[in-house]
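Two folds, back to back.
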Amino acid sequence: MENIQSMPLLAMRGIVAFPKTNISFDVVRGFSLRAVREAMSKDKKIFLVTQKDTNVERPTYLDLYKVGIVARVDQVITLQNGVSRIMIEGLYRARLCEVTTGNHFMKCNVEEIDEIGTDNFIVNEGYLRSLGDVCHEYFLMSKNSSLKSLINVKMTPGAFADNIAANTNIDYKDKQAILEEADCYVRVEKLIGILTREVNVLRISNEIDAKVKKNIDEHQREYYLREELKVIEEELGEKEGIKGEANSYREKIEKLKLKKDVAEKLLKDVSRFEKMQSASPDCAVMRNYLDGVLALPWNNKSKENTDIENARKILDEDHYGLTKVKERILEYLAVRTLTKGKDGTVLCLYGPPGTGKTSIAKSVARALGRKYVRVSLGGIHDEADIRGHRKTYIGAMAGRIMAAISEAGTKNPLILLDEIDKMGTGFHGDPAAALLEVLDVEQNFAFRDHFIEVPFDLSQVLFITTANTLSTVSAPLLDRVEVVEISGYTGGEKLCIAKDYLIPKQIEKNGLSGKNVTVDEAALGEVINYYTRESGVRHLEREIGSLMRKAAIKILAEKKRSVKITKKNLQDYLGKRKYTFDLMNEEDEVGICRGLAWTSVGGDTLSIEVNVMPGSGKLELTGNLGDVMKESAMAAVSYIRTRCKELGIYEKFYKTCDIHIHVPEGAVPKDGPSAGITLATAIASALTGRGVKRDVAMTGEITLRGRVLPIGGLKEKSVAAKRAGISTVIIPEGNKPDLDEIPKEVIEGIKFIPVSDMDKVLSVALLKTRKKGSFEIPKIEEKEKM
């Protein structure tokens, strides 16, 4: 216990003192002042130790770090408000052993800590240099002048580390960690690590400060130059920049002869703009707004051509076929002409891709002499795309409708709203709902775009919309438009389109001439049937383009004057066939019936197979069938059960047989009610053993009572039947009027039989006699014997 010393204790907050250093600080707390006076009254020694938590007012032993220094109080200066400033000299490290209380001050017992180190000159010099290099870098970054004088002073590594730690602005906890290390070399290593971290932090901080200063300097320079420019303009007698712009805006507003309320609103905005600082962000926003509003064609109109015969001529020039569609468009244009544009009907051209919806709108614009602008709505899900953004937002702009008006440069363009079925709905609103006002003639005469903020008359704009499907178009929007269906093209129509439009277009596009390349009809028919599968002609045009490119290579590489593409050499240009289609069955078969289906790429035939086998009455459905098609199969079985006596079927077949219905091409999803009569016919054939005529195909929905309901897509289905070689097609009675819309080339060679009930379907489709070897339905008695 000889090394234990007793002396007053001074607890410091946020300050760490080191041996062999001088430090001064203010003392406020009463018990701390009394500890200083106690030290001054005796040998001037006092133990300085740091508090762990600076917020503790009356620390105890647990609130103090366990290592501090023994110091000598050199001077005490009394300041105002009971504060004393003391100057002390650090003597040596000591460990706090015990805290006791004196006469209203803190007293303690401490034990001196011996420093660990060696007298090895090389080792000491290495540590000193390493720490000195880091200190020098820290000094350059921090501009701490107190370090400069210490760097070159000769002292031991431990003392050097203590002095550097005492004179750097590092956290008091880091300083305490340095103080607590008795090993001088470990102390140096810790300090090097701390200073290296601080150097990196200071480097980043200095870089940030430099960037900020540079930005401030650039803004000050810009402000100075603008002010100087104003003075120069005044000296030269020219208009001031911002005032000149404001006057220019006022002149434009006056020339446009706008409505009173619109003009007043814009003039107010001009006055606000005039008072703004030219460098402010608000000035740029207002300038953008005024430029956008005044660029709109408030009074500029295209002269409209109302000659209906001219419109008919242009539509015939640009499009083959589509007779019904052209007639409806001509009716529409005639009514608009007679009503002087008051007819508010908006047409929606609905049909598969590639059938000419967009090009029809272009032709209408050309026929009327109006400007044409296409607005693609596919994929948008924000109401602001239609109505625009409010101009207060950064990057705000007008909606697509007003942008189209501005692009057209007239207030009466034809605007094509393309792909309205592909609009989405998000948390930013429903763009389809915003379109309701645009397309409603009762409202769009005063359409307010959020960015433009003033009403604009859209009643003179001719809107045409397009869609590939109506199922995704909202009901209110569908109510605003009149749907004009554009069905897919037949093979003959595609052949004419290819000869008259697509081949000449691709010949010209690929730098050829009609003398260089010829494509015969047989080759074209092969391309249409086996290299494309679509309702329109878009893919057909690509294949013809591919033919022309291959022909161009042959002409240049093989030095040929001309190339003739025939059915025989077609594969040399396009490779093997890409598609195939089913032909009618080779013989009349039991349990196999051919139906007709509509797909997004046209019509197709659908073979339905039914097997009946001994069992317990299970109904198995395979072939990737949808719910509606499965329900149709169940309805067909229920109908057959009610007609067992008439069809000669054992009445309890549903107890002794399992029925398996399969539709080939299981990877392709299939659904819809139009296969109802086909399913019923195939089931009846399998149960009766009577074959289905191979040249018969059918389509129609079935009810439980055997009624046959009408279906859609009859034209496409008829084309598929023609392609498959079918000679008899059974259709619902309700679809009889649709036969008038099917081209003659399709109807020729096919006998259409309209039916209203399932009995008529079976009498036409099934053979009269049972086929030998067909399945015999086991009766319950026989099954029990088995």
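---
second:
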Amino acid sequence: MEENRIPFIALRGQTFFPDTIVGFDIGRDKSLAAIDAAMNSDKYVVVATQKDTSVNDPGDNDVYHTGVLVKLKQVVKRHEEYVRVLGDVERRVRINSVYDSGLMLSCDYDIAPDTDNDPSDLNLVALVRSLKHLYFKYVENSNSGEGAARALIEGVDDPANLCNIIAGEIDVNFDIKQTILEIDSVPLRMENLIGVISRENQILALSKRINSRVVKNMNRGQKEYYLREQLQVIKEELGEDDHQDDEISIWKEKLAALNLEEKTDAKIRKEIDRFSKMSPISPDANVSRTYIETVLELPWNTSSKTNINIKKAEKILDEDHYGLEKVKERILESIAVMQLTKAIKGPIICLVGPPGVGKTSIARSIARSMNREFVRMSLGGVRDEAEIRGHRRTYVGSIPGRVINAIIEAGTNNPLFLLDEVDKLGNDFRGDPASALLEVLDPEQNRDFTDHYLEIPFDLSKVMFITTANTTSTIPAPLLDRMEVIEVSSYIEEEKVKIAQNYLIPKQMKAHAIKKTQLTITESAVRDIINYYTREAGVRNLDREVANLCRKVAKKIVTEKKGKYQITSRNLDKYLGKKIYVDDIQDLEPEVGTTTGMAWTAVGGVTLEIETVKMPGSGKLILTGQMGDVMKESAQTAMGYIRSIAEKYEIPEESFKDYDIQIHIPEGATPKDGPSAGVTMSCALFSVLTGKKANRNIAMTGEVTLRGKVLKIGGLKEKALAAYRHGITKILIPRENEPDLEEIPASVRKKMEFICLDTVEDALKEIIIDEN
């Protein structure tokens, strides 16, 4: 017998037998992990029974060591807390040891044999007949359906199979079943089972006789129910049960006023009629009441009067936000179309950009400018499909999904619905929320959006959906396809100054109860905060530093009783401390093997240094700094290209054979990936192999081919703005990206020099300093 290592599940109060199909619920984390592991491999698990059902975290000593091998057929989520598993029980097994990895249980096992199983043995033939006879009598006594029982074992001639099927069907304690399961000898197993069924038959026969004599003796629950039913009839006869009738009348009046579609109206009326026939104390009555009230609370025909005055909307948007021209333009276009058509489906827009640039706050302003209600739903970390579509009413405590709840909260059927952080959705065995959002965000489908709880369609086509994300790379393609993507780029210094002066400083002064006559922050001080305390794509940290200034001034006003304070670039450090960012890249000295690149991340553009060193070795290329697979391949491509031009630039062949070359990107804890650092690594490798210094005050970006061509990259605007923030004035870019320069603000383009590259050699002419 072969030893195996396999996922293991301990069950409470259940024992299974081979040759049967079983269904059981799993809720413990280790059992769920075992199910996941099995479904991802060969779908086999070993199942055994716990000795003590009260043990929540069973180990090797807490389970019986005879169990069964089960092949999983289906895993269905039945509730937030557990899943229902369906499987075929194939063999009995002897469990050698149970292992606990901390995440799940596994075990070693041997197949348990069925001994003395000879169908021609007269003793076994007699046992088979006796067992069948007793089983049919058991079915008759327990009112389990004799026809189904005969169909179950008809044609089963193998004694072991018959014993397993009948043992699985009888209703006895798990420890009795476990005793039967542990017997290897088929005749002994059958004799044991015959004894158990004989005893059960005697008990069932006795119970029947007792029940027939005590029909009149109701238990307490039955008496309560009977008396309450009588009380209900008496109240109806006396006309005292008006409350429920009034409630039903109000519901029917509301329903009639809604004037819903025929199918929807009929379903709700059917539910109201069903409720009217229920006892008020019935648990189902509360479920039904909650459902009816939820459906009638929905704003089926209630809409906000949308503002279609473009000038008024533009004024509101400009009041609340500086810049964000693309977003404002798109909203004004929508309002113009509404003015012409008088009706329009709500647009579905995705605002993509780094943190702190105002994606969430502009959504509030859009709602105000269009006179719509505003509701927000954060999708960060959402993993359960039921969060979107709701739970079916079969579950205890079921509620509608967050989409329907938000619509009820808004009170109108045309609010502005913000789905925040759509790029951070997750998924697991409870479903895929991103797939559930496909129906919500599809203009062709969302007019009939059906929540699992409601089970009737609700029209979402009038809702204006706006989603936000830091990057589109993690958004599933089908979901991204349903949205109109508008990129919200980083702010330049001039924009940040305007935002601080017109929005942030007045807001924080008001929040801290500081009057305009008490505090003045000069423009030079604002620029120093931006450049030396808050290098970022957005203005979130800038807002924090302004709040920090206001707190310190508020303290001085209270303690010093002085009338007016002025903050300038000269005294700024007294309030905010020493500068955080002081070493501008423009002051860096040229070095051998070090170049400056640019990258785009979910938090905006960044500059990065590529460091290379050459050391005695065997020709290996060592890559460090948490590079992703694409970046590693880009480094290998750069190395291949430099080696191909080695002869032209008189780089000795020994440099590749007798030396190891290491490429490192600092900030090793931060993951980095993408092909756009190819030209930067090529120049760094050329510098270290030739021993010539590289200019570190020039930043560059571009993908490199093996033939040395520089290919187009993405995110040029963000990268250029990042370089600008760090004081770099000269950037090398792929020639194919030349049209993208138009996206960079004119004020930045005037202060920077952009050189277009066709090949790596073009970059070498700009970067490498020839001191000869």
